[in-house]
Structures are given as C-alpha cells and as structure tokens.
Amino acid sequence: MNRMLLLAVIATLFALAAPASAIVYAPGVPGNPPPNAVPNKSFTLIASEADVVIDDGVVFRAFVFNGTSPGPLIVVDEGDVVEIVVKNVGQYTHGLSFHAANTQTSKFVGNIAPGGEGRLVFKADFPGVYMYHCAPGGHGILTHTLAGMYGMVVVEPKKGSYLLEKQLGREPDIKVYLIQHEVYMNGRDFYDGKPVYVMFNGRVFRYVTEPIQARPGDYIRFYFLNVGPSLVSSFHAVGGIWEYVYKGGNPDNVEVGLQTVNAAPTESYVIEWRVPAEGNFLIVSHAFGTQAIKGAVGIVAASANATPAPVILPNGPVAQPPANPKRVVAPFEPTSPDESKTFLPGEKVMIQIVGNSFYPKIARVPVGSTITWVNEDVLSIGSGEITGQHNVAAVKGPVSFASQLLKNAEQFSFKIEKEGEYNYICGIHPYMKGTLVAYAAAGLPSSAGQGIGFTFDLTAFIVFFGGLGALSLLVYVGEKTSKKT
Ligand SMILES: [Cu+2]
C-alpha cells in the first residue's frame, strides 16, 4: 500500500472513531455554544423504569426521568449556556432528545446504555416552552415516549416580554406548568391512536380532585405543552377567553382573545389569563369524546379568600403504588386477564408484534394449534437498539422455543403440543412480554400435566445483557433452545 493511501485510511478510521463532541458548529447560528463555553446552568436527568400512580388504584408501568412521568420541569433563561447530564440507572437503554436546543442532541445524550451517562451543552437562544423525551435510538424513541418518558423545558424570555406582564407591571400570581399526555394499554392501541387515559400532569382528572386555587382577578400564566405522543389537544377554559396567547411560548408569536389553542404533539403555548370572577372554571381539552372524557379536565377554583400556590409543577405526582391495584397500564407486558384472547379449535392463531408489544398479550390456544407471530413494526431506521426488529423467545413453560430475528412482515410459527402456560419475551427488548396458555380441547390430541419443563432467571439476564443491545441474549436463547429440543 502506498503511503498516501495508508494515510487516507488512517484519517478515515480516525474520523469514524472521533467522539460526538468533535462536531464542527456552523458559526453564527443561534443555539450553538461558544467555543469552550462554561455552562452557567446545569441539570441532571436520571433515566430508569418505575410504576407510577395515575389514578386511584391505577398504576402505569412507565419509563421515567427522575422517578416520575412526566419528569421534572427544567427552567432556564434566554441566553443561558446550559448543561444537561443524563444518567441511565435503569435496566434498558435510554437517552434524551432535548427540543430547546438547536442541535442534534442525540449525538450527545441519545442511546445511553444502562450504567452510562451523556452530557449536552447548548445555548438557550430561543425563548419558549419545549418538550424533552427519551431517545434510545430509532424505533425505541417512539416506544419509550409511549412509556411516559418526557417532560417540559421552559426558556424564559427577558423580563417584561409577555404583554400582560408588561401592562400590569408585575409577574403572574400563579404559574401553571401543564403537560397534556396520553397512555395506551398496548402497542396495537398506540398504532390506532386509542389511549385508555388522557391526563394533565400525570394523573387522570388530577386538577378535578386537587383544583388549582385562585382569586378573582389573579393573573395566571399557563405554560401549556402537549407531549402526546399522538393526539392533538384543544385547550380551553369553560367560562373564559385566553387574553394573550404565544405560540411555542415565544413572545413574538402573540395572538389575542382566543377561546382555544390547538396543540399537536410537541406543540406548546404560553397563555396569559386573568380569572374573571369567583367560581369553578373547567380547563379542558375540548376534544370531548377522545380526550376530556378520558381524563383531560381540571378545575381552576376561584374564591376571594383562596390562598393560591404560586407554582403548579408538571411532574407526575409521587405516590406509593398500591399493593393490589385495580389496573396496571403496562403497554409492553400482560398484567390483566382481560388482555387475553381465547382461540377456538380450528381458528387461525396470529399474534402481532406491534409497538414493542405482543397483541394479544395473552393468547389461550387449544393444544395442537400452530401459533404464528408477525412483526407489524414498520420503522427500522436509526441507530441504537436493533430498531423495529424483534424475536420471540420462551423464558418459562413446558417446552422452549425461539425465533430468528424478524423484520417487518416476517413471521415465525410454532406448533404447541403440550398443555400449560408459556411465558416468552423479545430477546432484543426484554421488557416485551407475552403469555400463551395451551388448553386441552375435545377431539384434539393432548399431552397434559407436563408442568414447567424449563425456566431461567430473566432478571439476571436483563441486567447482564441490557447494555449490549441484547443481541447476545438472542444467541444465548438460540443455544439454550437447541440444547433443549
Ligand atoms: Cu427510554
């Protein structure tokens, strides 16, 4: 090899290995940190998984920042140089997409393995209200957002930029940071846009049970953000008209006298409003049948002798999950018998792999059935976990089975010949869990009473393999299966 070629190869290898921080910024573009900038504000977001309470006796098996869904509020001032540190203390790969930064934040804080951390520095040049959410890479960005991993960032403009503040010559009496978001029982419902609950700040009808206290004439500033992940909000006060509305929260984007603001996923508004009288003012998403009725309603309770809290935070409430919840909303795993479907003898058994879940999550099938899994997940671009691809791997039951890696529209079939309960996972995304219950049916051959033929310790597995994109898990499952069968 001649010397020039060798140097070119070395230079290429060096470029490929260069860390993300070696990004060359375009000079003069707002949002880029000055060279060697020292941050004057710093925040740490801790990624993990947790059960959070979203209604009386109802638990959401969520992915979280700092223990809650939504995660903590981050407030900075326009012009700040901001440092965001993300630490992943969870079992699975997580990350961060941070919309207040005018840069590709995933290069710095996306796709962080368990135990890892990342750091982002940016300059907050655009005032407004922004979303942040998990970014493990590719398809997982969508599904971890489905799992509740998001929060609000506010970049405060210079004092007096909002008109009502300027006119009154004072700060708001009450700042209400309000996130609208929805949760889904499974990936199929996520695809179909059918949430089970729609909430403000982490709880169904949260501000109906704990109304926001105010006095007539109080100046309220709403920082309203719809994080979706999919629905469009129609935010309205019953008996009120929003005095000033700022699209995105930027004071330059002002509109006057609106009954409603429409916020698509990630869309936000700063709203200035004075409470016009005593009484209960409902704040609602006016999409009645799809949102208000499912929990997106609150109350501003105004009375002359109220003692308002000056700040209402968007974090989900911190509450100890009950020992025996009425319902566990767990998009990626079966938690309730009503998530089962019983297939009759002769019926074709198809299980969809969709939105990082199995659907139906629990399939009751006659012994002798052939079960076919089909991967309906379409999105397979991006880095990170093996995105949009799945497999099926038994972890417990009378007989072991495991599929190859399935891309969109690819299938795997398995004939079930022994009665009993089978638990299986996706080896790539071990939080995806499904159950098969094989029952004996009249007229079909059966092999009853086999009990549990094999099992392995899933927890140790996830802890060990979680950071490796779980590919090694697949190999392990494959080997284990070939030994058993
Ligand atoms: Cu995540």
**Cofactors, ions and other ligands in the entry:** copper (II) ion
Straight-line N-to-C gap: 51 Å
Determine the fraction of residues in helical runs and give it as a percent range: 10-25%
**Helical run tally:** 8
Largest sheet features: 7 strands, mixed
* Number of discrete domains: 3
Organism: Caldiarchaeum subterraneum
Binding site for Cu cation: 94, 99, 133-134, 144, 149, 286
Keywords: Copper, Membrane, Metal-binding, Oxidoreductase, Repeat, Transmembrane, Transmembrane helix
Protein name: Copper-containing nitrite reductase
Map the helices and strands.
Layout: H1 3-17, E1 41-55, E2 58-65, E3 74-77, E4 81-88, E5 97-98, H2 106-109, E6 117-123, E7 128-133, H3 139-146, E8 150-156, H4 163-168, E9 174-183, H5 187-192, E10 197-200, H6 206-209, E11 212-214, E12 219-228, E13 233-237, E14 242-247, E15 254-258, E16 260-263, E17 268-274, E18 279-285, E19 297-302, E20 311-312, E21 327-329, E22 340-342, E23 349-354, E24 357-359, E25 362-366, E26 370-375, E27 393-397, E28 411-415, E29 420-425, E30 433-439, E31 454-455, H7 458-465, H8 471-484
This protein binds copper (II) ion (CU).
Copper (II) ion binds next to loops.
